[in-house]
Amino acid sequence: MARPTKCTIGTAGTTAVGAARAPRARPKRADLVAEEIKRLITDRDLRPGDKLPREGELQEMFAVSKSTMREALKSLEVQGLVTISTGPAGGGRIVEVTLDRTFQLMQNYLFFKEVTIDDIYTVRKLLEPELAAGAVPHLTDADFEALEHSIECCDPSSGHTADVIAQRKEDLNFHDILAQANPNSFLRFTCQLINEMLRQLTVFENDTPLRAQRRFGDANVTLHRRITAAARARDAATVRALMAEHMQEASGFVKQLNGKLRGRLILDSDMSRRAGPRRAVRRPAKGAVTGQA
Fold first, then answer.
1. Total count of domains within the chain
2. pTM for the predicted model, two decimal places
3. Domain carrying residue 40
4. What is the pLDDT of residues 220-237, one digit of tens each?
5. Terminus of the chain with fewer CB atoms < 10 Å: N or C?
6. How many C-beta atoms lie closer than 10 Å to residue 243's C-beta?
7. Is residue 263 located within the same domain as residue 135?
8. Cα separation of 149 and 153, whole Å?
9. Region (Disordered): which ranges (predicted)?
10. In-domain check, residue 2
11. Start-to-end CA span in the chain (Å)
């Protein structure tokens, strides 16, 4: 592939819409370089694992100083697009933006919005039935084993844990397994983000009776078992109907238990870095509760 010609960074022209607004701050030179590197990644169709040109070559290509180039690369690293290594064989390498990083950015945006748990369940009622039905033809024996293990872990009567919050998080792992089996990447991505919001941000009032939480857990386990049985029978229509019933029932329980979203900014230390390809899913050790695995 031919090397791009040397180019000079400049500011973009204003549009008719932009002219009617307050003047925007002039972008920093490093930010403009970062945008040009993104364009280079797109034009060369670079994929995760591919290396960027070496730092010196990038400097020459964009006619910028070493400090500006390093600032631009650091910006891309923070965005989760590249990883930077040092040494003779070092440099920038393309990486896939993780679900955790995307969730962090989304939640930091939503921190300043009014989003309730009712809003979340309104969306789940629409998406989860289609997600589950679409996963049915693609579920493997390993997936069914993982679904059964999740059911066992979140069953209040199993004795795996008395921690009802851990059980609720394990409930979400059941949905993540179905999401990872669905070939629709955008639907899968959306539902996994919602699951992560519920996992990280849902809180219940401290005076919620334990038996009410147990009823919620029992109801979830019952429908999870029915959904799994229908999926084993490759009955997508029944899975869709059961998941719609499950979402309606779960929404009612959350209201009864005064579940709320705890608005907060997500820290790097909160992120589990567990995103990966579907076939990388592993069954947890027996007895483990993996709400945030």
1. 2
2. 0.72
3. 25-94
4. 999 999 999 999 999 999
5. N
6. 26
7. yes
8. 6
9. 272-293
10. no
11. 41
